[in-house]
Amino acid sequence: MTPKEPARVKLSNETLANLPETIARPVYDRGALSPGIVHIGLGNFHRAHQAWYLHRLMQQGEALDWAIIGAGVRPYDEAQRRRLAAQDHLTTLIELDPSGTRAEVIGPMIDYLPVTEGNGPLIDCMAAPEIRIVSLTVTEGGYYIDPAGGGLDTEHPDIRHDAAHPETPRTAFGAMVAALKRRRAAGLGAFAGQSCDNLQGNGAILRRTVVSLARLSDPGLADWIDANASFPDAMVDCIVPATGEKERALAAALGIDDLVPVSHENFRQWVIEDDFCAGRPDWDRAGAQFSDDVHGYEMQKIRILNAGHQIIAAPAEVLGIETIAEAMADARIRTLYRRVATQEIAPHVVPVAGMSPTEYIDLIERRFANPAIVDTVRRVAFDGSSRHPGFLLPTLRDALATGAPVEGLALVEALWARMCQGTREDGSRIAPNDPWWDSLTAVAETARTRPRAWLEMRRIYGDLADAGIFARAFETWLAKIWQDGVAPAIDGYLAR
Name one Pfam family in it (predicted). Predict the structure, then answer.
């Protein structure tokens, strides 16, 4: 006989007591929570990571005045708001591990602001005195960084709009500026802005973005923000796949009717600079780490894990491999990752307390290979035009500056160029997967016969087309990929 599927409990405050006994749930009174944090960009990662740490504190009876209010600034965020509101902003977290599946329901989020043009509700909320932290997960490409100089891209239409219309901004950063202006006028202190995105020095980048944007419309306000607000650096880490029918089916099999469950690996890390101008929860009591060396942890994670994802994703996509675990099961791709990470990345990564770069590579290799995590190659490969400059090219520049090897890094960039041409080796089409996909595809097609055209995208590569050793290696690898295929090109590198 087929085992009977448990009756599903539609997730809500009223039904928490009806959940299966195996499902952990909040023991705190959610009705007694009060807000302290606004989080902008409320996707899966935030709920599996920062919200989980806060939930753990609340389970201990602490931080009950630090509840989260979710927010978004784009029209598509409204759909997520409605789904979460329908279940009282509760989330089912499903931990996927080869040893078994475990689940819990968390409840530190108590509201999700309406998404409106001009972001009025968001500005009102952030201007309220009880809000002491505004955190963000808006992706690495969401900070309006000028690719030429590294500062704020003041020519971007969104930034130009916010500078001209600071009371009705389009961006999260414009909304933060507007809220901070109101707080200054009301005699309130500033809040802390906390980036939770994979950027080296993410706190400094957030400060630069907010202060630079404020300076375009109100230099005095910019000075006040710079002097009074704080922007702590942080390194965040947990592999969290996108939610689809598989994840909803997992929740259903556990007896929970959740519109937006989140699956995740059994690993989390959060290293935070202790610089919060208006106070903070004691996240360290829930397993986070406060450190004066966030930069070292960021470098290790971004250059080995995040860059590692890009090393794996491009060849896997071209070869038609669907998940990261499946890519790591391919001996050729796994060895490519190991060789590039060990020989060409690790020498430019500083050790941190308790973890050498080589030990970290071992850890990441195991995590990537977890077959229980169905993390798609497509998700990992998304927005390569931001991720390659952020994750791989800093190491490449360090290697060039010291005369270190770059053959593997050149091959990785050539594999990405091949992927962006938009077809797999079996002839199937790769669906658009980058905000700049159309232009990337056009340049990748040109690069089939003139490889250096790819490196001439200054927005991504800057002056690297002029770095002879790297440029020549890139041209050789891309020509070989198109002539012989991805596998022979990787074999050629591994045989060196």
Answer: Mannitol_dh
